[in-house]
């Protein structure tokens, strides 16, 4: 996963702010916040839990929990993250020796569910569902009767743009994707060496978020069957839009996170980037000369007056199905992601954008790179509230790999982006059938 961390941008003292945010109502202890089912199943005597995570400084955060909970001690095992971490967890689960808790990226969670590797936490999480936006909660649920993780961090998408160059070229911040296309053509006319943006065929996560914004639903469950809808109308609309801009030459086709892309950002030859809330850390590292020149706005909308976004990145805390202490593990996971003091530590120590709605609203000083935009976090919180998620499928790796292959060819050959989406659909369906999943007609 692209980094969902914000580095120094989030190293602000938020514990007191978050605590005061909830001062109007009593703060329940982790024990009181449990459902009756969780309390009934609570183990007797001291419990030791293992937690696999790649978030930095998580051991320091766990120390706070351990000090206050002598009967439930958590040991952190640092992982590398990404696809390798997901594969390692599945291997451990199959071998019968998984950790009690695991940091699970949203797109990998369904593969854990399909392998019966994570526990259903619906009863334990019922009291905290309201702490998160509907879009984020949808990323940890499957069907209507199961919850397989507690949202920890998220990556709502926004439009990052060079304010100084927009002003110089006389371009208004686009409020719709139609306006974005018109602005792209204006940039090309005023400076043939510059582009408003680029389409990256190497980053399926970005395309996924844009499809979510348009209302796509790539996977769903009907009874005991999966339904695959990657080539749905919403996704084709997104693909055709970007494909037309690339073919026309209105935007570039250089991939993100390459030396060429970094230089274009730094030199002012690339004027915008539809990205996620973690973008300030990337920009500060890759485009240091442009510090203070970038600004942020909501993503352009498909229909004027709407306020939708999607997610690029983010993770949850899941409990292993094989854990002998599920109730204790759920208690820790609840504390980690909803307790004001714990979330303050997550922001300060782990440098992540929290999933909890109150925590997002409590963020104060803007990232240093965006010091000229003091309402940065307020904009991010508003965008997050309108971000759409969707159910991921059990073989998202196949889908994402096919995206890279099919869109690489479409970019190189200037062929239909919709055909690339159909290739994603066909490869995903074929792989699920091969794996024995029941598919709805």
Tell me the number of structural domains: 2
- The helix content is 40-55%
Largest sheet: 7 strands, mixed
- Calculate the terminal CA-CA distance, rounded to whole Å: 32 Å
Spans with pLDDT under 50 lasting ≥5 residues?
1-43
Q: Which H/E pattern describes the elements? A: HHEHEHEHHHEEEHHHEEHHEHEEHHHHHH
Helical region count? Answer: 19
Percent of residues in β-strands = 5-15%
CATH superfamily of the largest domain: Periplasmic binding protein-like II
> What is the CATH domain class of the largest domain?
Alpha Beta
Question: Class by helix and strand content?
Answer: alpha+beta
Tell me the Rg in angstroms.
Answer: 22 Å
Task: Describe this protein's structure.
By secondary structure, this protein is of the alpha+beta class. The protein has 2 domains: 7-155 and 313-385, D-Maltodextrin-Binding Protein, domain 2 (3-Layer(aba) Sandwich); 157-310 and 394-435, Periplasmic binding protein-like II (D-Maltodextrin-Binding Protein, domain 2), CATH 3.40.190.10. 44% of the residues lie in helices and 14% in strands. The chain contains 19 helices and 11 strands. Strands 1, 2, 3, 6, 9, 10 and 11 form a 7-stranded mixed β-sheet that branches. Strands 4-5 form a two-stranded antiparallel ribbon. Helix 3 (58-68) packs antiparallel against helix 15 and helix 11 packs across helix 19 (417-435). The chain is globular, with a radius of gyration of 22 Å.
């Amino acid at each position: 996963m692209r980094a969902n961390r914000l580095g120094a941008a989030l190293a602000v003292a938020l514990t007191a702010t978050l605590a005061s945010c909830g001062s109007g109502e009593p703060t329940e202890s982790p024990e009181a916040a449990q459902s009756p089912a969780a309390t009934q199943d609570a183990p007797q005597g001291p419990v030791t839990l293992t937690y696999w995570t790649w978030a930095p400084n998580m051991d320091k955060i766990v120390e706070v929990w351990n000090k206050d909970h002598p009967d439930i001690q958590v040991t952190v095992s640092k992982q590398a993250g990404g696809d390798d971490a997901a594969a390692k967890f599945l291997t451990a689960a199959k071998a019968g020796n998984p950790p009690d808790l695991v940091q699970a990226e949203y797109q990998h969670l369904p593969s854990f569910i399909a392998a019966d590797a994570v526990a259903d936490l619906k009863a334990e999480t019922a009291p905290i569902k309201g702490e998160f936006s509907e879009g984020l909660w949808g990323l940890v649920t499957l069907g209507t009767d199961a919850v397989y993780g507690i949202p920890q961090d998220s990556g709502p998408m926004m439009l990052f743009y060079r304010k100084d160059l927009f002003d110089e070229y006389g371009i208004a911040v686009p409020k719709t994707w139609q306006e974005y296309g018109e602005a792209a053509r204006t940039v090309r006319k005023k400076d043939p060496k510059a582009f408003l943006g680029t389409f990256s065929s190497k980053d399926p996560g970005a395309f996924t978020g844009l499809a979510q914004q348009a209302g796509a639903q790539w996977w769903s469950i009907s009874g005991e069957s999966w339904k695959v809808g990657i080539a749905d109308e919403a996704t084709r609309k997104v693909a055709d839009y970007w494909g037309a801009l690339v073919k026309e030459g209105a935007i570039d086709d250089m991939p993100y996170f390459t030396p060429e892309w970094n230089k274009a950002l730094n030199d002012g030859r690339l004027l915008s980037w539809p990205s996620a809330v973690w973008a300030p850390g990337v920009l500060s590292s890759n485009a240091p000369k442009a510090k203070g020149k970038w600004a942020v706005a909501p993503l352009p909308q498909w229909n004027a007056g709407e306020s939708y976004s999607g997610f690029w990145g983010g993770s949850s805390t899941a409990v292993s199905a094989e854990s002998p202490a599920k109730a204790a593990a759920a208690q820790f996971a609840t504390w980690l992601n909803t307790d004001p003091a714990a979330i303050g530590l997550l922001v300060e120590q782990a440098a992540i954008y929290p999933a909890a709605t109150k925590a997002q609203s409590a963020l104060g000083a803007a990232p240093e790179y965006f010091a000229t935009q003091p309402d940065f976090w307020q904009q991010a919180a508003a965008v997050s509230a309108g971000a759409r998620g969707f159910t991921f499928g059990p073989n998202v790796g196949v889908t994402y790999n096919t995206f890279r292959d099919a869109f690489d060819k479409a970019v190189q050959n200037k062929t239909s982006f919709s055909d690339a989406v159909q290739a994603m659909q066909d490869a995903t369906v074929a792989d699920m059938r091969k794996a024995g999943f029941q598919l709805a007609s």
